[in-house]
């Protein structure tokens, strides 16, 4: 099963609680750790987390962006120390345009965790940072053009996506969507062609493992038609 979590609502949560916007990201990071452990407990083989869009890093205030970068650094350092990553044979992948925007020290951390886990094949943790689905599709088309394929088909397109190694997404869970259930930025447009969606009013810092498990159980009761 491939589950995607889009953590919407950190900034709104901070505002509601009289905090600065960047403080919502700090609280959200704590939630992610608990959700990830629950995902492994539920034997979810592929878990993908959209940590930030490209606009999050290009258009937000400098203080907020610096907080995000600091959180990424702490998170990847924790992953490197997390025994469960290696005991459970979790492969960590990071997709997006992070190489263009991250400081070298942070890039080195990402290179290290992806290299150390590249042979793992039991669980797959994919983190999307500086990621937009439109960027991914455009880059795939550019790669195909450079390689000058004689035949272009679905297999070729998928192989040239950043996320080409991942299976189709079964369920997208998006938090913080009160009266506004939506997708964004062409998110994983190839992999989500037949995905199911679960939207919650709960802002991400209030999203619990129990609510996550409830969303999974709800999905398992659905009849999927795959366009038929």
What level of helicity do the residues show? 40-55%
Low-pLDDT ranges: none
CATH 4th-level superfamily: Decaprenyl diphosphate synthase-like
Query: Approximately how much beta-strand content do the residues carry?
Result: 5-15%
In the sheet with the most strands, the strands line up as 3-4-2-1-5-6
Distance between the termini: 21 Å
What's the β-strand tally?
6
Radius of gyration, taken over Cα atoms and rounded to an integer in Å = 17 Å
CATH top level is Alpha Beta
Number of domains: 1
What is the CATH third-level topology name?
A: Undecaprenyl pyrophosphate synthetase
Structure description:
- By secondary structure, the protein is of the alpha/beta class.
- It has a single domain (2-131, 168-183, 191-220), classed as 3-Layer(aba) Sandwich (Undecaprenyl pyrophosphate synthetase), CATH 3.40.1180.10.
- It is 47% helix and 13% strand.
- It has helices spanning 10-16, 21-41, 54-58, 62-81, 83-87, 98-101, 104-116, 133-147, 154-159, 209-220; strands at 2-6, 46-50, 90-95, 123-128, 171-174, 196-199.
- Strands 3-4-2-1-5-6 form a six-stranded parallel beta sheet.
- The two termini are 21 Å apart.
């Amino acid at each position: 099963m491939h589950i995607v979590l889009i953590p919407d609502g950190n900034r709104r949560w901070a505002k509601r609680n009289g905090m600065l916007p960047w403080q919502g990201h700090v609280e959200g990071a704590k939630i992610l750790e608990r959700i990830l452990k629950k995902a492994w407990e539920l034997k979810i083989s592929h878990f993908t987390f959209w940590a930030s869009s490209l606009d999050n890093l290009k258009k937000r205030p400098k203080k907020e962006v610096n907080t995000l970068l600091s959180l990424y650094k702490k998170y990847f350092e924790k992953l490197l120390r997390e025994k469960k990553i290696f005991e459970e044979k979790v492969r960590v992948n990071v997709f997006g345009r992070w190489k263009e925007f991250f400081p070298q020290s942070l890039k080195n951390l990402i290179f290290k965790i992806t290299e150390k886990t590249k042979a793992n094949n039991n669980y797959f943790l994919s983190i999307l940072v500086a990621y937009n689905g439109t960027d991914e599709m455009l880059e795939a088309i550019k790669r195909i053009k450079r390689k000058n394929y004689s035949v272009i088909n679905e297999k070729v397109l998928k192989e040239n996506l950043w996320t080409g190694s991942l299976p189709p997404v079964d369920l997208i869970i998006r938090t913080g969507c009160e009266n506004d259930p939506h997708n964004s930025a062409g998110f994983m447009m190839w992999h989500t062609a037949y995905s199911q969606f679960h939207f919650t009013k709960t802002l991400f810092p209030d999203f619990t493992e129990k609510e996550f498990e409830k969303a999974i159980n709800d999905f398992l009761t659905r009849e999927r038609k795959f366009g038929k």
